[in-house]
Amino acid sequence: MPTPQLPDEGERLQKVLAGAGVGSRRACEELIADGRVKVDGKVVSRLGTRVDPRTAVIHVDGKRVMLDDKVVHLALNKPRGVLSTMSDEQSKFGRARPTVYDYVAERSERLFHVGRLDVDSEGLLLMMNDGELAHRLTHPSYEVDKTYMAEVPGPVKPAVLRRLLAGVELEDGPVKVHKVRISDTLGQRAVLELVLHEGRKHIVKRLLAEVGHPVSRLVRTRFGPIRLGHQRPGTVRRLTSHEVADLYKVVDL
Ligand code: URA
């Protein structure tokens, strides 16, 4: 027969918070007493409260605190020529092209990549082993911003920018750009910065081809709250605890 769950099982909340790096035990006690800590969606302000760190979902000031250090969140700066797939199937027979899997092959976690970048696109690709977070980040209903820099033939007229913002009809339905600006002009070429909420296949290339500016280079510079910054191509970094908390926040987890 299973042992009944006793209310005083688990660990003290302030210890769990301190262990997750939120602050000293004393500082965590203050956060709890001030009503800034939620456990499983409810404010907990009683100091003796015990929680199960394996299952509790804890937020401090609305930001998720990660308790399980086996959950990893990575950012890859995907170089051009690398396929967005985790499948290593062809490796036995030799592969024509490298894949994003190659950058994390040594890791023991089973990682998902969050959305895709075309083989000739570059930039920020998030990888993680939290399936629910990965799913929400790519689901159109959560409307997570994705920012791209697209090099196109210039000049780009203001009417084109207005058309992108108004919405463009593609063969699989309309697409709207959330924000767009000309970030740079390089002789006969222009660099557009665009923010989209969706991730249909080749969406930026199809959209810009439709308005007469086919893309010659595409770099994703931001995914929700996470920025590519100066991360070097072909490198992987672990997201900071602040970045991770921000990611969970944008998709209400
Ligand atoms: N849109 C594209 O056209 N390609 C990408 O890789 C990402 C967005």
Which key phrases capture this entry?
alpha+beta, Structural Genomics Hypothetical 15.5 Kd Protein In mrcA-pckA Intergenic Region, Chain A, Alpha-Beta Plaits, Pseudouridine synthase, 3 domains, nine-stranded mixed sheet, four-stranded antiparallel sheet, 17 strands, disordered N terminus, binds uracil
* CATH level-two architecture of the largest domain: 2-Layer Sandwich
Topology-level CATH name of the largest domain: Pseudouridine synthase
Could you say which structural class the secondary elements and strand pairing correspond to?
A: alpha+beta
**What bound compounds does this protein have?**
uracil
What would you report as the Rg, rounded to the nearest angstrom? 22 Å
Helix content: 10-25%
- Unreliable stretches, pLDDT < 50, 5 or more residues? 1-6
Question: What would the principal axes of the Cα set say about the shape?
Answer: elongated
Q: Helical stretch count?
A: 6
Question: What does this 3D model show about the protein?
Answer:
- The chain is an alpha+beta fold and 253 residues long.
- The chain has three domains: 11-64, RNA-binding S4 domain (Structural Genomics Hypothetical 15.5 Kd Protein In mrcA-pckA Intergenic Region, Chain A, Roll); 73-140 and 234-239, Alpha-Beta Plaits; 145-223, 2-Layer Sandwich (Pseudouridine synthase), CATH 3.30.2350.10.
- Helices cover 20% and strands 28% of the residues.
- The protein has helices at 13-19, 25-33, 131-138, 158-166, 203-210, 241-250, and strands at 11-12, 37-39, 42-43, 50-51, 58-60, 63-65, 73-78, 112-113, 122-128, 146-153, 168-170, 173-175, 179-186, 189-196, 217-223, 226-227, 236-238.
- Strands 7, 8, 9, 10, 13, 14, 15, 16 and 17 form a nine-stranded mixed β-sheet that branches. Strands 3-2-5-6 form a four-stranded antiparallel β-sheet.
- Strand 5 and strand 6 form a beta hairpin.
- It is elongated.
- Residues 117-118, 121, 202-205, 218 line the site of uracil (URA).
